[in-house]
Amino acid sequence: MLLTGGFPNSDQAASYFNGPRSLYRIHLGDCLKEGRYKILHKLGVGCHSTVWAARDQNEHRYVVLKITRVAVPGHERRRESDMLQSMAAPHPRKKEPGSQHLIRMLDHFMLEGLAGYHDCFVLELVGQKVDLYVEEQTSGRCRLPARVAKRVAKEALMGLDNLHKRGIVHGDIRTGNLAFILPPSVHSTSETAFCTALGSPQICPVVSGDGEPIGPEKPAYIVAPASFPKELALCSQPVKLIDFGESFSSAETPRRLSVDGPSVAATIAQAPGVVFGEPLDHRIDLWSMGVMLFELITGVHLFAYERKSPATQINEMLHLAPDALPARWQSQWRAMCAEQAFPWHSHSPAAALSTATRAMPHEENAQQRQESLAEDGDNSLRDHLAKEYFERTRRFDLADGEENDFFTESDIAKIGELISKLIRLEPAARVSVADVLADSWWDDV
Prior knowledge:
It comes from Phyllosticta capitalensis. By secondary structure, the protein is of the alpha+beta class.
């Protein structure tokens, strides 16, 4: 059956076919779990789920319902459920700094559809994702003010530090998985006022191209995701790490993350070990955090925002990372280069001369050269950060007194130093989140 209906950047009618990966049919006003959760609006759609704003009619608060595609038997697609339930359970570190920057699961149940069972995660309500906020609500500047960017960066680091101490790897650190919370007063507003704030739902009817009935498992219409109003000053609120669909326990060593392959947005932040298929651990989050910090500060992506071949991804990393490609990956890299007709090189430009040190007669001089090259590599990344930040700043029309909304040269130098400690091709060379947070630069946040 040919089904049509949907919006750009939203789920489409074909996603609800009666098959092994179908979405669960939802209509506005539906009440789930014996009437407890009333669906009010759609908040978004991802590779594996739809996300809805709902009213918990028992607890009299607004919540988020994340409803997955039909659950896949096996280990990988159960990770999110396992991780969220682990985080919801009492934990000795739950009250430590950082736990308030992790989204909480409030409830979990299963929904039976015609194609199988769907996980439904009830999560605390959060507001707009940081990437969408920057895109839609920064008056065309497309980056956060310095004081906000620094606070958001620190809160994201605190959340990840707490997560790692719990033995959980997030697996998908990026601005699209970082969201501002909503003020507590939201929960006391009426359903009408709540939906008005999100905008009247837009719907697109689902129709059958061959005139056949669409069937009870298909939605009668697709709902467009809500947009948060500009007058809602979300950037004054704290942020939380969200979306644990790629998370796993640090006791595991998976070789891949997403069953269906990473999205374009996830690809730009993924670590080199993911590309090379190396067993994964918490250090993939360190790389992704470095990439995200660059974006939070500058408003631009460290790597190109487009779908890229593995060879293109690694080539970009080699041009920006301050260290050399680990020897264990070089044979794979040669094969990628041969397949894509790339010129082969195994080092970032700043470290390209490191091979010459092998021929130097004096070990001490060789060591000095290596240290100098490593410093040059760090400087290359820092220079790139400074160039992106200050060139864009010069294009802004500054109002009187607005200079305080921008980082100084010394701030950018420090941020570049911290990012360069995370953007290392060799996972073992990346510093921990706790080490980044220990820097005194964060003390005034």
